[in-house]
Amino acid sequence: MTRKLFGLMTLVIISMVCAAWAAEYGTADEAKKMLERAIAEVQKDKTKALAMFSKGEGGFKDRDLYPYCGGPDGNFTAHPSLVGKSLKELKDKNGKPIGEEIYAKAKEGAIAEISYMWPRPNETAPVQKVAYYTKVGDQVCAVGYYK
After folding, report:
1. Does 33 map to a domain?
2. Going along 71-125, which residue ranges are E strands?
3. What pLDDT does 23 receive?
4. Domain-embedded: residue 16
5. In this predicted model, what pLDDT tens digit does every residue of 54-108 receive, in sequence order?
6. In terms of C-beta distances under 8 Å and separation of at least 24 residues, what long-range contacts does 85-92 make, across chains too?
7. How far apart are CA 56 and CA 24, in angstroms?
8. Is 115 inside a domain boundary?
9. How far apart are CA 86 and CA 138, in angstroms?
């Protein structure tokens, strides 16, 4: 009886830890849905949308999920901290040219994805991250999530 109770308690604790971890980070589905909402906002009012994305307003900051965009010059037009810096020249922690690939492959009306290595917020060790991205008018926009 004691052994069964201990096993049940262990299972409950493991389940709670897994649920807490999952709630701490955004999922692939949530990232894609946020990008779809971001596309609609850019199409409606680009200037307002880019400001909202950078400030995390209107539901565009959810845990580690947020949209970011780059303009025709290759620089971030929306990002919590990198506006004005080069998105096109952005490389992951292994040197993969992610910004260059996003700009080369982004197409209006199609959502693609790119996988790269990037540290989670407030951490230093890179882990696998995936970004969904697309082209919206003269903007290339993306939302990434950690695997």
Report:
1. yes
2. 76-78, 112-119
3. 73
4. no
5. 999 999 999 999 999 999 999 999 999 999 999 999 999 999 999 999 999 999 9
6. 87/140, 92/116, 92/117, 92/118, 92/126
7. 17
8. yes
9. 15
Task: Give the Cα separation of 75 and 82 in Å (integer).
Answer: 9
What SS3 class is residue 10?
A: helix
d(CA 43, CA 64): 24
* Tally of domains in the chain: 1
Q: How far is CA 115 from CA 17, 54, 141, in A?
A: 26, 23, 15
Q: What range does the domain containing 57 cover?
A: 27-146
Any idea which residue has 């990434």 for tokens? 144
Confidence of residue 111 (pLDDT cuts 50, 70, 90): very high
CATH of the domain at 42: 3.30.450.20
